[in-house]
Write the structure tokens for this entry.
Amino acid sequence: MSKKYQFVKQFLMISCIILFLYSCKKNDYIVGGEPQDVNIYKNMSNYDMLKSNVAFDTLVQVIDAAGIKDLINAQGTTFFAPSDYSIFGYLNKRTIYVQNNIDINGKFGLDSLLYYISNNINGTKDSLLMYIIKQPLTYDVLKSEGALYPTGLIGDTAAVSYEYTYEEALGYSSSVSTVPRVVYFTHLWYHYDLDEDNPAGDIPNDVGVRTLVKTSGILTQNGVVNALESSHTLFFYGTKQ
């Protein structure tokens, strides 16, 4: 290998590292550990940010049916947004339940969900409030061990943590000295005493449901939007143990 080739290779590697560190600013949002430019949404509300993204087309319909647009757009609000995949996953699970327990040919589709939400059947309208936290959870206030926050749903609590990750799929690389961090949203079914000795990452599965925030820290005109990973099921349906 020639000295010239070695020099070029080293130069490119160093350039990539510098570029990564430079791009990871406080006003970035993070997609799976990778920083992205946040400014494209700074003049949009939380609701308009969702409406501008095809990944949330169905979620917007659900929000409209529930009539909670103004709550999501309240100043200083953080919204943990389920993707359309989360909604379709919920519909599939509800369909399986219907076919196993009510009608073998039955189906629980989007029309059924929108009807349930509009009429608040089984509290479906109110359940959407579990994704709302009434304060702006920007990176500078989040902790690696996590903290407890009341959600918009009465009596409901979630743990939000900003944790270091060593998973390459989430942006970690041994060639970069800065370990990336990702946000987790843990819905609690039962009370949990959270502290440094009992961090959010150690919450048992029978106490809470830990969900990766796939895209975090999206600053908008009125607050913050965090998009939950697609494997999440709307309302955490079927996860209570």
Remarks:
- The chain has one domain: 26-233.
- The beta strands are 28-31, 34-37, 77-81, 132-133, 147-150, 157-164, 181-188, 208-219, 223-228.
